[in-house]
Design a protein that fits this description.
4 helices, 123 residues, alpha/beta, five-stranded mixed beta sheet, single chain
Length: 123
C-alpha cells in the first residue's frame, strides 16, 4: 500500500507538504486527494511545500505542474514554496518551466501571495 500525503486546510487555502521522495502511486493518490479537497472545501488556493526535497527530477517537476493545472481547472491558484537553489537549477536544466505555477521562498510568503487578489502587485 502506498503512502498518502496529508492535505491540510488553512482557511480557504490547502497545504500539501511533500516530505519524502514520491512514488507513482503516491502522486496519483495526492492528485486525487487534492482535487477532492479543493472541491469539498471550496479552496481558493493551494500551497505545495517542497522544502524537504533535496533532489527533484523530471517526474517531480511534471507532478508539480500537473497538480497546479488540476487546481487551476478547479478555480484554485497554486504556489510552490521552499524550493532550494539546487532544485531550481535542476528544474531549469531539465527544461521544466513549471508554467502556471507561482513560487515563493517560504510558507509565509506563499500564503501572502495567495491572499492577494490575483493580478495585484506584491507589497
Amino acid at each position: 500500500m502506498s503512502e498518502r500525503i496529508p492535505v491540510l486546510r488553512i482557511g480557504d487555502i490547502l497545504l500539501v507538504s511533500v516530505q519524502s521522495d514520491l512514488e507513482d502511486q503516491t502522486v496519483l493518490n495526492l492528485q486525487e486527494d487534492l482535487a477532492d479537497q479543493i472541491v469539498a472545501r471550496s479552496a481558493t488556493g493551494v500551497v505545495i511545500d517542497i522544502s524537504a526535497l533535496e533532489i527533484v527530477d523530471s517526474f517531480v517537476g511534471r507532478m508539480l505542474a500537473t497538480m497546479a493545472a488540476i487546481s487551476r481547472m478547479l478555480d484554485a491558484r497554486t504556489v510552490v514554496v521552499g524550493m532550494r537553489p539546487a532544485v531550481a537549477i535542476t528544474l531549469v536544466e531539465l527544461g521544466l518551466s513549471l508554467g502556471g505555477v507561482s513560487t515563493a521562498l517560504d510558507l509565509e510568503k506563499g500564503l501572502a501571495k495567495l491572499r492577494r487578489p490575483s493580478g495585484s502587485a506584491p507589497r
